[in-house]
Specification:
The chain is an all-alpha fold. It has helices spanning 2-6, 12-18. The protein is globular and about 30 Å long.
Length: 43
């Protein structure tokens, strides 16, 4: 999903952190995620 939203999958840890996910592999169908603005110049 990060690839689709940000154009690069490497931001998955930032998205997991913002959403309070300790283990991103435990995503379940129907869960709502927040995809915040990310400063790509520092990542």
């Amino acid at each position: 999903m990060c690839k689709k939203v940000y154009g690069d999958p490497k931001y998955y840890l930032q998205v997991a952190d913002v959403n309070g996910l300790g283990n991103f592999r435990r995503l379940e169908p129907g869960m709502e995620l927040v995809f915040p603005p990310i400063d790509k110049t520092t990542n």
